[in-house]
Amino acid sequence: MKTYVSKNFSPAIAWEALDIANFAGTSVRLHWTNQPYKWHINDGEEVFAVLDGVVEMHYREAGEVKKVLLNSGDIFYASIGTEHVAHPQGEARVLVIEKEDSVQRRILTHLNTLTHQVC
Fold first, then answer.
1. Do 8 and 18 contact (CB within 8 A), yes or no?
2. Tell me: the pLDDT tens digits for 61-78?
3. 1 in a domain, yes or no?
């Protein structure tokens, strides 16, 4: 058993994470940030819960960029294939539940594709 006080998590680097749990390949991580992330698509679904601060979530729906403002306690659900990017409005702490390493695999696949196109 362990208790986490999210407001006490303040790493030096934006989007640094504290691993809380892993359920058969599904990770639960606490992130701190004061900088936007990058546009991405996860390999599976993602639950993004704002614990502290405000985050403007940008996402694409039918090719159109849309935005939703998430306050403390709000949750964004990214279904499979949802391209999205989080823009914190100042400091924010978020709980992210997603398939383990889903973003990194997608980025590596994209980089490999770019490498093959250049060669």
1. no
2. 999 999 999 999 999 999
3. no
